Amino acid sequence: MDKTWIKKITKSKSFSAFTSALLAIFLGLIIGFIVMLFARPERAVAALQKILFYGFTDLGNVFYFATPIMMTGLSVGFAFKMGLFNIGASGQYTLGMLFALYAGFTFDLPLGIHWIVCVLFGMLGGMLWGIFPGLFKAYFNVNEVITSIMFNYIGTYLVDMLVKGSAKMYVPTTTRTAYLPQSAQLPALGIKNSSANIAIFIAIALAIILFIILNKTTFGYELRATGFNKHASQYAGMNGKKNIVITMMISGALAGLGGAFAILAPSTIAGSSQTYEPINVIAANGFNGIAVALLGNSSPIGIIFSSIFISHIQRGGTQTSILGFKPEIIDVVVAIIIYFSAFSLVIKMAAGRLITKMRHSKGKEEVDQALSEETYMPDKPGDNTDDIEEKEV
Amino acid sequence: MDNYIIEMLNITKVFPGIVANDNITLKLRKGEIHALLGENGAGKSTLMSVLFGLYQAEEGEIHKNGKKVEINNPNDANDLGIGMVHQHFKLVDVFTVLENIILGVEPNKMGFIQKKEARKKIMDLSEQYGLKVNPDALIENISVGMQQRVEILKMLYRENEILIFDEPTAVLTPQEIDELIEIMRGFAAEGKSILFITHKLNEIMAVADRCTVLRKGKYVGTVDIKDTTKEELSRMMVGREVNFKVDKSEAKIKEKVLSVKNLSVASEHHKNLAVNNISFDVNAGEIVCIAGIDGNGQTELVSALTGLSKMESGQIILCDTDITKANIRKRSKAGISHVPEDRHKHGLVLDYSLEDNMVLQRYWEPKFQKKGFIKKREVRKYANQLIEKYDVRSGQGPTTIARSMSGGNQQKAILGREIDKEHKLLVAVQPTRGLDVGAIEYIHSQLVASRDSGKAVLLVSLELDEVMNVSDRILVIYEGEIVGELDPKKIDVQELGLYMSGAKRDKSKGE
Amino acid sequence: MDIVYYLVQNTLPVAVALLLVALGGMFSERSGVINIALEGIMLCGAFAGCLFVHFIEKNSLPAQLIFVLGMLVAAVAGLIFSLLLSWAAIHMKADQTIVGTALNMLVPATVLLFSKMFFMSDGVTTNTRFYIREVKGLGDIPVIGKLFFQNTYLSLYIGVVILIIATIVFYKTRFGLRLRACGEHPQAADSVGVNVYTMRYAGVSISGVLGGLGGFFYAVGVMDGNVNGHTGVAGFGFLALAVLIFGQWKPIQILFASLFFAFLRTLAYSTTLIPFLKALNLNQDYYKMLPYVATMVVLAFTSKRSRAPKAEGIPYDKGTR
After folding, report:
1. Rounded Cα gap, residues C210 and C139, in angstroms
2. Structural domain boundaries in chain B
């Protein structure tokens, strides 16, 4: 009898992760709808329909736009597992883009090899930018949130400066980068009127590899242990500093790949590719990655689906301009989804707490102890305030 | 009739899945010292929290002077003259003594704090009751005993007449305990009524007029101290005869295992050294106990030994190998097992399953991994072995999430893991803290068994009974120095207390 | 000497914006709530204030009156917006960093959405100049007059007053004591009857007011009344967080930290005026990165010994002791 009872709870726990994601999405869409109702009441319903259903008619582009945010989502989610909040995916993404562009314009390599080199360069760029928050956290005790925000700005300014300074990459008349040579572009999938390309498969494969790393390897074991309880991981002799730096490197590399996948994609016009406009704006895809990771419960498999979902409503969002709205409505919706996703962590914690309370039959005071542990030392992403200073908790 | 100032009648407090207080009645007379006795988890703190307004009871009533009252928060309690010294002091570290005392009842004009007024009142109280404090000292810079005075002054400042003390002696030396008992008697003589939560029988016999006993959330009875004995109280508390002596034979001391030479460790809290030039040895086949009041350097000593923190100077040798510079993993491999002080902070990853926790120190061994991939089947097999061997009880066996296990079973899991691991030295820090008598007895027996199998055991304990009963040799630590090396068979608790409070020290140990 | 005057006159409006926002952050964080949403709060205040100015400036009101009115609107907007943070952080016990990030994303998206829909632009621009060429009487004082009472903004004096009030409230009043207790040891505060929730709402709300004001002062005093959703407040809210850490969560130290960062920024944007820097002939973009790079350097050196409020970022649950 005891066993079935526990099963129910565990079920409801994973269930609650999923339902709270759905709830966040629902609230995001509802509030987005209210905003639209407020702006143009007569067209709001039509716009909502576009948002919800247009994507199905443009699956190629849904997949194309899902790829970069799947990567930034994996980047953020992977760091979450270690208890790190990589808000710097934007900077890493931008650096990845720069490195990929550089390799694309500078190297002269045969078809079939060139784009692979470009992708690897993009990965390298992101990795480079991911190391900094890792190093600052591990060796200077600086909270990674602050560091990665600062490196978003530094990275964006740096990349824009370097792009504008390069005659090979930059076309002043269009204020954008030039088209990449065909060899540097990602092989297209040939879906009509879309930029869908091979990268979506690479991204999904990477998600599966990450899932295996996290759940089956000693590195994943260490990483998750550190994310749950860094004191215990230290006690167990794990090298926390090294793991922080490695995690941030991997996280940065994933975001950098996102940047590479975004910029190396062929565009719908034959022979042309995507371009980048250096106007000192921090890449939104890094932040979208946060939404993707939260909705996917930081699980690589969940992130595959959440990124496609976000891409789906984004595609619909662009279509609302026909009705007099602007695509930014989706950014509003995404922000609201993140807002409510932060609550879902709490909902999940509450579910865990419920189990604790129910499972305890020995003594109330122990429950109290366990509870206060949970409330006062929550080992959850984003809660690394004590790293600004070693607090005695 | 009896003159009851507080009556808690048929109190029932339920937490999801557990009845913490089941129909409990407690009556406090005016001017008495009333002990509330029970094991860890018996519901004492919950009951007092109900009285102090931190929790609301589902059933039952509270009367003051015969009239029913509602206590919904600490403010209500304070208005009724109820004050409480919590087991974990509720003091703000970076505030001064004065600020902590006035917090919540600040004397003010238009919101501006009148410190002069407050200072005068505090100094007067301090004088009147002999509770010396420096009102401008920061809490983080004063001793634990001093902090307790601040807590007591907080109640006096609020002119409370019903004083609750939650395990007030846990952090004090025997001499400080005597002082506290005097202070409590003084309060009672003045007409204040005192509720005193404890699980220590000696103190009850020494100070209390009456005693109410709880067991597993239920009311067992209330007795007059002058009509009872320690044995009877302990039977009421545990529900069976308790053997306070630990069964063990003479220690068979073998070769030297651990040798610590001139170890010094910096403090995180103050500028002085937390551990100051300590040297000692631990041999195979003996249990050496580091005894001392909390906060005298034990934590830092253990951190330095196990590699959790860096040392300033000194040398650590384990079985002829110098491990001074080795990291935690290497020390673990060299043969140190460590049952940490805080099982939730260090000992377990609470969100991991029991089986994952069982290999926390060993997941990297070839037995449990191949080319970086964890062998789940081996882990499961090993976890089941340990669960069987050390009687770890949990809902779903190896797949139970550690967080959902009871404290006693969590501790058994940690102990089992550390004992089963290849080791020469077992460092156990307060291994019985917060556990009930059954679990305590089990853990003591395991420590002795470990000793008898030829391991060296270093036990750090704050509990005098544990120090006296379990150890073969006692090292007393005071302000970061070893001030005495004692034989538990040759000394009594009083003398041990003198060492622990720094009043006495061996000539051979330092200046 | 003219360069010095120029640098000081240009540093101060920047410093005031940083100072107010960081002071707001101080109230929020020392009550126990991490406020990473300062960036969004600033932009919210800046946009609301400038939008108000945009509509009211057609009436021929005196410039400084418009300034004060715009300021009040910004403060109210910041306050209301900050409730989204306090509600989530305090009542819903949500993750404060993530909520802050969401709010930071919400503001520019909303600004862009509405500006594009209703103004066909990325933001709003005001035409009134709030610049004060010289404060009558005081501007003539040698040196000091030139430094503090010429080519300046009303915000400077308002900022000084707010700093003084904030410091007194923080250290001398019952409210300040209780607020600080909630950020360090909420259980202690609760056990003596202080309502932790109320204090935290108060702390975050003050940060909303000051953040909104700071955003408006930034928009008017630094960006000449131009607010748009793309550049937003260019990371000033985040710099204010760095100022807060650098200033050790204490008002007077925050003042010096904000002067330091404001000076760096002014320097970065005036390289052409300073012969030494001009001679280096570096790309202007290098200097744009300077405040952010400086933040990292400063944090690397100071964070080891810095002491954040202990209970910061940890939701308070009345049910636990």
Report:
1. 28
2. 4-238, 246-335+425-430+454-511, 341-421
Degrees (nearest 5) of the Cα angle C157, C159, C162? 115
Out of A60-69, A379-388, B251-260, pick the least confident.
A379-388
What element of type H or E holds A121?
A: helix A114-140
CATH 2.60.40 holds for C2-305: no
Distance CA(C203)–CA(A31), nearest Å, equals 27
- Facing B332 at nearest CB: one of A237, A368, A374: A237
Q: Are C314 and A374 in contact (CB under 8 A)?
A: no
Closest CA to C290 of C260, C259, C256, C264: C264
Q: Which two tokens mark B249? A: 């034979």
Q: Is B24 helix (H, G, I), strand (E, B) or coil?
A: strand
Q: Is residue A277 part of a domain?
A: yes
Closest alpha carbon within chain C to B15: C319
Q: Looking at residue A57, which CATH number applies to its domain?
A: 1.10.3470
What pairs with residue B222 in β-bridges? B212
Kindly state the tokens that stand for A221.
Answer: 């074991």
Fold exhibited by the domain B4-238: Rossmann fold (3.40.50)
d(CA A391, CA B4): 45
Decide: B38 and B215 in contact? Cβ < 8 Å: yes
Characterise B31 by phi-psi region: left (phi > 0), alpha (psi -120 to 50), beta (else).
left
Nearest Cβ partner for B349 among A218, A232, A390: A232
Phi, psi of B99 (to 5 degrees): -60, -40
Element (DSSP H or E) covering residue A8: helix A2-39
Q: Does B43 contact A at CB distance below 8 Å? A: yes
Q: Do C177 and B113 make contact, defined as CB atoms within 8 angstroms?
A: yes
C-beta atoms of A389 and C103 within 8 A: no
A391 within some domain: no
| Model confidence pLDDT, tens digit, residues C39-61 | 999 999 999 999 999 999 888 88
In this prediction the ipTM stands at 0.91
- The residues, any chain, with a CB within 8 Å of residue C139's CB and separated by 6 or more, are C145, C146, C149, C150
* DSSP code, position B343: I
Count structural domains, chain A: 1
CB contact (8 A) between residue C191 and residue B74 = yes
Query: What pLDDT shows up at residue B293?
Result: 83
Looking up tokens 């005891």 gives A2
Instruction: Describe the crossing of helices C154-172 and C251-269 by its angle, rounded to 10 degrees.
Output: 150
Spatial contact of C80 and C45, defined as CB atoms under 8 Å apart: no
Domain that includes residue A103, residue range: 2-382
Asked if the B246-335+425-430+454-511 domain carries CATH number 3.40.50.1370, the reply is no
Residue B314 burial (CB < 10 Å; 0-12/13-18/19+)?
Answer: middle
CA distance B338 to chain A (A): 9
- For residue A324, which residues of chain C lie inside 8 Å, CB to CB? 117
Instruction: Say what the pLDDT of residue A365 is.
Output: 39
Q: Is A98 inside any structural domain? A: yes
Average pLDDT, chain B: 89
Q: Between chains, do C109 and A368 touch, taking CB under 8 Å as contact?
A: no
- Residue A182 phi, psi dihedral angles, 5° rounding: -50, -40
Contact call for C106 and A378, based on CB within 8 A: no
Strands B313-318 and B321-322, sheet pairing: antiparallel
Residue A385, pLDDT above cutoff 60: no
At A272, which amino acid appears?
S
